[in-house]
Write a structure and sequence with these properties.
Radius of gyration: 21 Å
Structural class: alpha/beta
Strand content: 25-35%
Number of domains: 1
Largest sheet: 8 strands, mixed
Order of helices and strands: EEEEEEHHEHEHEHHEHEHEHHEHHHEEE
Length: about 375
Amino acid sequence: MSAELVLNNAKIVLEDEVISGSILIRDGKIADISERSATGGENFEGDYLIPGLIELHTDHLEGHYVPRPRVRWNPIAAVLAHDAQIATSGITTVLDALRVGLDEDAEVSAPEVRKLADAVEDSVKQGRLRADHYFHLRCEVSVPDCLEGFHYFDGDDRVRLASLMDHAPGQRQFVNLETYAYYYQRKLKLSDHDFNLYCDRRMAESATNSAVQRKAISDLCRERGIRLASHDDATIAHVDEAVEQGIHVAEFPTTLEAAAASKQAGMSVLMGAPNVVRGGSHSGNVSARELAEQGHLDILSSDYIPFSLIQSTFFLSEAVDSISLPDAVRLVTKNPAQAIGFDDRGVIEIGKRADLVRVRVDEHIPVVRTVWREGRRVV
């Protein structure tokens, strides 16, 4: 006998429109969508029903494992805490961003990163998790051990995306050295002399390692069917390089010029949801809201605040006249699903997975009331 669930009296956000009605879930998939009221089932009382959100780049897991400097939490407990926050933010599919290559921000070693990945995979196997978890490898190509860290994931079919990034001074996000100094000199508590030596070392590492490791990792990803992302592209030359390397997703372009060129080249442009909510980048780069207004934005990512993903979705649909609620929802559902090759989710459509979120908007803030993954309630 099949398992069925009816969700009734909902404002259903479809790919291109919002309808009032009900849906039928059978065996974890959407079996019917109707503009008529159904009998029985869960009464939504007019709340929104949207597809489960799909997150491609969240750095949130590492903070649960290293909540304070030199503090290490149990990796499975860290994964469970991370998963709970992801799911209660309406995210049903997540690519956990894992560090590959230890730069100035690193609090964890390559073996520890692999230990965290193992904790995720064990938790998937044991059925502990609410969301569907995969991996995004954040490859810091400027540092010497990047390729070594990448090989910790050889043969791991949970890796779906790898981003090629260079956070050395003078590169991409930190083309302006004054901005780099403001961000890192205070963080690292270095004197002017020591900070200059530090910058010289990081720039030398970038000159030695970036091009070689960027090519090696992009070649390996193409061989293994792993989608590729660029990171913090700032110039047309950066975009041209991304095209040559077969990049699918342009993550966090720092200028309007780079975002427009990436879009024109056929890449999906990804920006941070916190950028949308705050009205601008925390590091002074291009506004995600401006890219949305000009049609250069395809995907939003929560980056460092999981709840910002759903918050930015409803905010954009209110703040930008040219963006409807279905338009905004696609930025966090259908578009990221397509970017990494998931064709079974991301829209409310007959035959797709019943990954769904019930949302009520209160004082312009979306309130996640219930979450289903493959028809099973997880929140």
